[in-house]
């Protein structure tokens, strides 16, 4: 299936210092990025909170960043601040290509995300056969694959561990060297297991990115007079058919408790496994 991803920006990083520049800014090891591969990278501020989450691709000697278009101005302006004297050119090429998501399909010019998903870049003038203009299908598949996004509502609120980016070094390489926030991210990693992780949920009620998760507490907590506690945030969401699906952070010790949205009287979220 081919899905038109008209909700994504595309930025080109070129110049002889482009690889070194991104290597010094992003959480993953750009030098390990192969052609026809997508590498997930977090762009953190100095406290380790994620400003943007990118799909990074190689196109010849250039590097491309794909991410939700609502963050485009913020990301481009911030990257340009750090170029300084480097030979790096940052260009918004969102209108130059159509970004097409592939679900359970392959293409000779694809950038592979995982076994199920890939991305291709096409000239907008080209007619793509059998393309589907339904972002809900793509969003549901990203949630199924537990691939998170960063939007305005979650910008600078989450560290990489909360999005599972440290697991199998999906989006963080712990031996690549320095980048903004690296000391904080590394310290959390080496101190032990993260207390808050990314999970997928389902509900029959509407939800929004940035909504808070609340959970009922254990009998011990109830004995202290507590009842509910804030325990996470909705990271991405989609309505698919009659149900709502989301990725959200949650305290790992609360995965077996009742989870509701925004307060103790909010709609219930059911934690789900991949379907």
Overview of this structure, please?
By secondary structure, the protein is an alpha+beta fold. The protein folds into two domains: 2-144, Alpha-Beta Plaits; 160-272, Elongation Factor Tu (Ef-tu), domain 3, CATH 2.40.30.160. Helices cover 16% and strands 35% of the residues. The protein has five helices and 16 strands. It has helices spanning 18-25, 72-81, 135-144, 182-191, 219-223; strands at residues 2-4, 8-14, 39-44, 50-59, 62-68, 89-92, 98-103, 111-112, 117-122, 131-132, 196-203, 212-216, 228-240, 243-251, 259-261, 268-272. A hairpin with a 5-residue loop joins strand 3 (39-44) and strand 4 (50-59). It is globular, with a radius of gyration of 19 Å. It starts with a strand and ends with a strand. The mean pLDDT is 92.
Describe, in short, the structure shown.
It contains five helices and 16 strands. Helix content is 16%, strand content 35%.
Question: What distinguishing features does this structure have?
Answer:
single chain; 275 residues; alpha+beta; Alpha-Beta Plaits; Elongation Factor Tu (Ef-tu), domain 3; 2 domains; 6-stranded antiparallel barrel; 5-stranded mixed beta sheet; 5 helices; 16 strands; 16% helix; globular
CATH class of the largest domain: Alpha Beta
Overall spatial form:
globular
Residue fraction in strands? 25-35%
Number of strands: 16
> What's the N-to-C terminus distance?
18 Å
Q: Give me the strand/helix succession.
A: EEHEEEHEEEEEHHEEHEEEE
Q: Kindly provide the radius of gyration, computed on alpha-carbon positions and rounded to a whole number of angstroms.
A: 19 Å
What summary fits the major beta sheet?
6 strands, antiparallel, barrel
CATH architecture of the largest domain: 2-Layer Sandwich
Helix content: 10-25%
